[in-house]
Specification:
single chain; elongated; mainly alpha; 64 residues
């Protein structure tokens, strides 16, 4: 049990050391990345909504 506690502590210590090495984005970069993600989500949502309407209409035409 004692060794597992030491291993767990070592894991968190090593993780913290790795996080200190990360180059975090600045405010301008973060804003840019956020805008890209939002635009991508909106585009994909519109794409699938249009695709859903088209497939729904095709199914409706076939089943009537």
């Amino acid at each position: 049990m004692k060794q597992s506690f030491g291993t767990t502590f070592s894991f968190f210590t090593d993780s913290w050391a790795e996080l200190k090495k990360v180059k975090w984005p600045g405010r301008k970069e973060l804003t840019s990345y956020t805008l890209v993600v939002i635009c991508t989500v909106v585009f994909v949502t519109i794409y699938f909504a249009i695709l859903d309407v088209i497939i729904s209409e095709l199914v409706r035409l076939v089943t009537e």
